[in-house]
Design brief:
alpha/beta; Rossmann fold; 2 domains; seven-stranded mixed sheet; six-stranded parallel sheet; 17 strands; binds NADP nicotinamide-adenine-dinucleotide phosphate; binds zinc ion
């Protein structure tokens, strides 16, 4: 075992605090990574505060990890010491179920092992990226092909990027599609950039009128203030697909009404309380669908990283010190982040 340092929530109602723990020594298939940057996902906050009621304490959040390889096991072919590497939300899965065999480890029928908060169904807790190092099986480690100078802004691709890329790809968004993105936060701003790069016409729905100029700069073709009924009505039955990233329960009907016949709204936001039930006729009368989507598998995460490298896509970030994490959570809840906090891990001990 080797000594690791990080930040942990010790219970749901205490701020995160400095925390020392141990990581395993790299085995033959493992890579050890010195973590340089870690993005701050809203799921980190949901978990630290036990909002999904499944948190194992102490909880070291963080699943938007980028860093440098410092050790590799004897069987590892794809990484060498000194390489840049990324780790997202998954560090292991059963590898034998139908989903794993198809490269959709996020839907592992035996429960994938999350980068933090352990295997979903029992087992030992895992500690995430708010820390100085991590040891991960190389099969679950990603290659970073962006310029090294962009490394901090690449980190959020490991969750916010893949969580929006995966449904956009699954529902075949491309040139000629009209796509809605609901919520301009960490996930939403990546959805805008990626959908635009896929060739779609992008409509951003926001509750924050002051985000309009940013949304247009990020690549939205239209911005709709979702509380404005006239603006919402103007979008009626025009969208092929919507990715909904909102982190709180809200009325889905105005967005369903914006879908064309046969359109789908994929929910990726994961509020701790259910959305009010949608109007059945809003579905029936136009054969519309409501779907959900969970992060993405390892192969698709690499595909997304390479797509973003080719298209010059990174996240818009504000770099923070590790000890500013509790303040960052409060700001995230107020929507005061443009558009992802990324922890500079060099500040962990400084
Ligand atoms: P975020 O940065 O906080 O963004 C959420 C956005 O939702 C806000 O910027 C805001 O955009 C909008 N919003 C509207 N009303 C809100 C309200 N009452 N409370 C909070 N947000 C509101 O969060 P994120 O990191 O993008 O994560 C979004 C959600 O996705 C979280 O629930 C997270 O746990 C979940 N998530 C799911 C997956 C998955 O695999 N499905 C993966 C990662 C994260 P406007 O100001 O533009 O309205
Ligand atoms: Zn996340
Ligand atoms: Zn599996």
């Amino acid at each position: 075992m080797s000594q690791a340092y990080g930040y942990a929530a010790l219970s749901s109602d205490q701020p995160l605090t400095a925390f020392a723990f141990e990581r395993r020594e790299p085995g033959p298939d493992d890579v050890r990574i010195e973590i340089l940057y870690c993005g701050v996902c809203h799921s980190d906050l949901h978990t630290a505060r036990n909002e999904w009621q499944n948190t194992l304490y102490p909880s070291v959040p963080g699943h938007e990890i980028v860093g440098r390889v410092t050790a590799v096991g004897g069987n590892v072919k794809d990484f060498k010491v000194g390489d840049l590497a990324g780790v997202g939300c998954i560090v292991d899965s059963c590898r034998s179920c139908a989903s794993c065999k198809e490269g959709e480890e996020q839907y592992c029928e035996n429960g994938f092992t999350g980068t933090y908060n352990g295997p979903l169904f029992g087992g030992e807790n895992t500690y995430g990226g708010y820390s100085d190092q991590i040891v991960v099986d190389a099969k679950y480690v990603l290659q970073i092909r962006h310029d090294e100078a962009q490394l901090a802004a690449v980190a959020p691709l490991l969750c916010a990027g893949i969580t929006t890329y995966s449904p956009l790809a699954h529902w075949k968004v491309g040139p000629g599609s009209k796509v809605g993105v609901v919520g301009l936060g960490g996930l939403g701003h990546m959805a805008v950039k990626i959908a635009k790069a896929m060739g779609a016409h992008v409509v951003l729905f926001t509750t924050s009128p002051n985000k309009r100029d940013d949304a247009l700069r990020l690549g939205a073709d239209e911005v709709v203030v979702s509380k404005d009924e006239a603006q919402m009505a103007a979008q009626g039955s025009t969208l092929d697909f919507i990715v909904n990233t909102v982190a709180a329960p809200h009325n889905l009907d105005p967005f369903l009404n914006a879908l064309k016949r046969d359109g789908t709204m994929a929910l990726v936001g994961a509020p701790d309380q259910p959305h009010p039930s949608p109007g059945v006729f809003n579905l029936i009368l136009k054969r519309r669908s409501i779907a959900g989507s969970l992060i993405g598998g390892i192969r698709e995460t690499q595909e997304m990283l390479d797509f973003c490298a080719r298209h010059g896509i990174v996240s818009d970030i504000e770099t923070i010190r590790m000890d500013a994490i509790n303040d960052a959570y409060e700001r995230m809840l107020k929507g005061d982040v443009k558009y992802r906090f990324v922890i500079d891990m060099a500040t962990l001990k400084a």
